[in-house]
Amino acid sequence: MASVQSYRWATVAAGLMGAAGVGLAAAASHAGGEALLRPASTICLAHAPALVALSIAGDRVRLAALVAVGMTLGTVLFSGDLVARHFIGSGLFPMAAPTGGVTLIVSWLLLCAGALAPGRN
Question: Where are the transmembrane segments (predicted)?
Fold first, then answer.
């Protein structure tokens, strides 16, 4: 069984996502960018609490580490691509936002699968 320390990275990622989400919301409201920055903010703010919950739950949630990695990567790809498009005029790489979105969807489904998987003996 992994210790709470092993999920510390997920808590750090959650804090960074939360801060980015608030900053992006402010930028969208005050500096323009509703079309790209608002959805990037929403994705960050939606997944930060999920990562906090996964980091607290640790190994009590089956597949928690994999779900946390997927949520972190998916959020970085999805939101990062939208932010890059707004500020530098091009995305991270072709299909970065859709790849991030699919990664997030798969991560949520993995969370469901982990909850439905038989318990450990």
Answer: 37-56, 63-84, 96-117
